[in-house]
Design brief:
homodimer; 249 residues; alpha+beta; Jelly Rolls; Arc Repressor Mutant, subunit A; 2 domains; four-stranded antiparallel β-sheet; 8 helices; disordered N terminus; disordered C terminus; DNA-binding
Chain lengths: 249, 249
DNA sequence: CGACGTGTTGATTCCTGTCAATACTCGTGG
DNA sequence: CCACGAGTATTGACAGGAATCAACACGTCG
C-alpha cells in the first residue's frame, strides 16, 4: 500500500482555519450557524482514482471538497464516458433534495471532503437562510459554467477545446497573469484520459493537440503535466472565445 | 405587419388562472406572497424570432415563460452558435444576482413572459423563503438537465442526438406514452436549424438523420414538423441511453 | 529487470461538415 | 389566379477532422 499524504492530515479541521471557508457553501454563515454545521461535519479522504459515489447509489451524504480534485461523470452502456463536473476545493458534492446520485463522482487526485449527512443537512438548508442563499448562488454559478462547457463540447474544434481547458485550469488555480509579466505556469492535475473525458475527445487527440500547441510555441511542457504559457493572450486567442470575454465577467 | 395571436391575449392573467402556477418559480408561495408578486408582475409577448435579451446586455427584468418556447444560446465570433437552454412554459428567464446576461435569449415561437423587474424581485427572493426554495430547486434541476445535455454533446452520435432530442421534446410536452398504446405524436416547435443549434450539428446532418430514422421506421413525419412514434421504446433504444434510465428518474 | 500506467506517434477509416443545387411552403403582390 | 420571393428543408458530392486500431516510448514501483 502506498503511503498517502492524507495519513498525515488531521482528522478534523477547525472551521476558522478551513482553507475554503470563504468560498464553500458555509461561506455566508454566522458563528452560531457555523456551530451547527461544525457539530455535524466529518472529514473523509479518498485516494486518487477512488470512487466517491456511483450513479444510482443512495446519497447518504453531501459535502465540500477541501483538498484535491474530484470529477463528476456519466458513462454510457458501451463505455463512452463524459465528465460533467470538475470539482475543485470549495465545490459542493451531492444534490440536496435528491436521494440518489445521477452521476458518478470519483477522486482524480487525492481528495478530502468535509461531509454532512444528507438528511440533517437538508434540514439546516431549510432553517438557515444564509446557507440556502449560498447554495443557490453556487448552483447558478455551476449552471453558467455548464453552459460555457456546452459551447465547448458542441462547437469547438479539438485545438480550441485544449486551449480552453488550459485557460480554465489556469483561472481556477487563480494563477491569472499579472499585467506586468504575461507568463503563467500551472500543473495539470488531470491525465490525458481525464482531459479527453472533460473535452469529449479521445486521449490520442488530446495528446496530439497538446503537442501541436507546443510545436506552435503557444505552450511549453515540463514533465508532461506542467504547462508554461509565455503569452497568455495568445493562448486565449486559441480558445475561439471573444478576446476579452473572460476577463470582463 | 403580421397579425399575431398575442394581440388577442389578455393584457394580464389572474395568478389563480395561470397555466404554469404549479411549476413556475412562484409555485410554493402562499396567498400573501403571491399578492406581492402579482403586484409587480407584467406580461410581455414576443414574436417568433424576436430577441428577448442579448448577451452582455443589462438585465432589467427576470421572469417566467407562460406560453411558447424560447431559447438560450451562445454565439462565437465567427458565427458558430450553440443553444444552451430550451425554455418551455414555467421555465425561468434571467439570473438573479447578475446584472448582465451571459447569454442570448430569443423567442423560438411566439413567447409570453410574466416579468418582474430584477431588483425588486431579488428583494423578494431574500424575503420569501418559499420563493428562494423553489428557485434553488429549479436551478438544480436545470443543472442536472445541462449535465445530461453535456453527455449528448460530447459523446453521442448524430443519430443518437436526434433520437434524444425527440424523446426530450416528447417528455417535456408531457406526451408520455400510455402503457396501453405505445404510440406518441408531437410537434417539433423547432426548425431544423434550431435543432442543429441544440445538438451541436449542422442543419444538413439533422435533416439527414431525421430522414434516416424515418426510413428505418423509427418515426413517421407529417408536414415536416409533426412526429409520430409508433414504438417509443424503439426510439429510446436509439438514444444510446440506458433503456430504463429516463423512466425511473 | 519486468510489469503496469501513462503518453506519444503513425496509418487508416469514417462520420460529420462544407459547398452546392434543388424542392417545398406560405404570404404577398402583380 | 399565378408568379415571385423568402424561409425552410432535402439531397448529393466531396473534403476534412477526429476516431480507431496499433505499435512503441517513458517513468515508477515492486
Amino acid at each position: 500500500m502506498k503511503i498517502i499524504a492524507s495519513q498525515f492530515t488531521p482528522a478534523s479541521i477547525d472551521c476558522n482555519e478551513c482553507p475554503i471557508k470563504h468560498r464553500a457553501v458555509c461561506a455566508y454563515c454566522e458563528k452560531s450557524e457555523m456551530a451547527l454545521l461544525e457539530a455535524m461535519k466529518s472529514y473523509k479522504t479518498y485516494a486518487a482514482g477512488d470512487p466517491i459515489i456511483f450513479a444510482g447509489d443512495k446519497m447518504a451524504f453531501v459535502g465540500s471538497v477541501v483538498f484535491g480534485v474530484a470529477r463528476l461523470s456519466q458513462t454510457m452502456e458501451d463505455g463512452r464516458k463524459q465528465m460533467v463536473g470538475l470539482l475543485l476545493p470549495s465545490d459542493f458534492v451531492g444534490r440536496p433534495g435528491r436521494a440518489y446520485s445521477a452521476f458518478d463522482v470519483e477522486a482524480t487526485t487525492e481528495v478530502t471532503l468535509c461531509r454532512f449527512e444528507r438528511k440533517p443537512f437538508e434540514k439546516l438548508l431549510r432553517d438557515i437562510p444564509n446557507l440556502r442563499e449560498r447554495m443557490l448562488e453556487m448552483a447558478l454559478d455551476e449552471l453558467d459554467a455548464a453552459r460555457e462547457w456546452m459551447l465547448l463540447l458542441g462547437r469547438k474544434t479539438a485545438r480550441e477545446k485544449i486551449a480552453s481547458l488550459l485557460t480554465i485550469i489556469a483561472r481556477r488555480q487563480n494563477i491569472l497573469p499579472d499585467a506586468a509579466k504575461n507568463e503563467v505556469s500551472f500543473d495539470l492535475s488531470l491525465t490525458r484520459e481525464a482531459m479527453s473525458e472533460y473535452l469529449g475527445l479521445t486521449l490520442e487527440t488530446v495528446s496530439r493537440q497538446i503537442n501541436a500547441l507546443r510545436k506552435d510555441g503557444v505552450i511549453k511542457l515540463e514533465k508532461k503535466r506542467h504547462v508554461i504559457v509565455n503569452d497568455f493572450a495568445r493562448l486565449l486567442e486559441e480558445t475561439g472565445d471573444d478576446a476579452d470575454g473572460g476577463f470582463l465577467a
